[in-house]
Amino acid sequence: MKRKIIGLLFILTIVFAFTAFGASAEVFHGNCGPEGSEDSVTWTLDSITGELKITGTGEMRHDEYEKHEDNLPPWYSVCESVKKVTIGDGVTSIGRLAITDCVNLTSVEIPDSVTRIGESAFYNCTSLASVPIPDGVTQIEYEAFRNCTSLTTVTIPDGVTVIEDGVFIGCSGLTSVTIPDGVTIIWNCAFRDCTSLTSVTIPDSVTRIGNGACWHCCSLFSVNIPYNVTKVGNSAFYDTTFLQSLTFYSPTTEIDNALGNNAGHTTVYGYKGSTAEKYAKKAGIKFVALDAEPESSTADDTAAGDTTAADTVTGETPEPGTQSGTVVPAVIAACAAAVVIVAVICVVMAKRRK
Hints:
Layout: H1 2-24, E1 27-31, E2 41-46, E3 51-56, E4 84-87, E5 93-94, E6 107-109, E7 116-117, E8 139-140, E9 153-155, E10 162-163, E11 176-178, E12 185-186, E13 199-200, E14 208-209, E15 222-225, E16 231-232, E17 245-248, E18 254-255, E19 267-270, H2 275-283, E20 286-289, H3 296-303, H4 307-314, H5 327-353
Parallel strand pairs: 3-4, 4-6, 5-7, 7-8, 9-11, 10-12, 11-13, 12-14, 14-16, 15-17, 16-18, 17-19, 19-20
Antiparallel strand pairs: 1-2, 2-3
């Protein structure tokens, strides 16, 4: 009996050893540095733990990658096994399409040495809930986080000056984003289809908001456009279903049909005579002036003899009962009629008793 048990344990040990050996053998590796110095940055992927490690010095490949079968990052064929990405200190960029379609990725570690996140770098990483972008990053390129549907919050580093086209397009789980002072341009479709985004604070440094920048951000409630913004592009806030107010703090901002053709629910706020008022009037949108002072034309009307306007402008309060010439006589007449009716009823009832 003991021999059978010992034999069984021996067999299990061998099976376990072969299993462990097989597991450790599932490690992929290669180079991913730029052309001419490919071995300056290397990668390893353990398909069992799901960790992709990128180490070395300098940039990863960028311009060489194309989104077609024969020219993608070298780990793309096993990208669905990637659960964690660790980028080593010394690497200065995350390459174009580098982490694209890693749909099971949940964790990313980016060192302070990284200054650039390439085009579509994290495209379609649908399980990624957060990305700690280090302060050293100054460039976040076109569609870098497109369709990261689980991403909930993002803090853009202070060194970033331009939010490129479609950087967060399709991030439907994104609820808040911090845009730092220093950003000057929010380009086309930067936050398009961020359907859970409830607020976005645009800093005073911004001078331009591109076409469709917040298209279909249907959870936005209120947006303030700072004084320094010179242009808001076409359909920048199109299909923002719950947007109640859009406020312009400059009287001269160029507004290119910012709300599109479906803006009946939104009120535009701005100064009298501003481009915001002209835009609202042209588009048939409700406009409310930021200041309550009367227009000079009102005083001119008063001088011409408009006594009703005079009462409004000077703030004079009519005597009680004299605001309208017909109010007091009407009340007296109604009371007299009531007295007559009561008297008639009393006479009739008295006769019936007799």
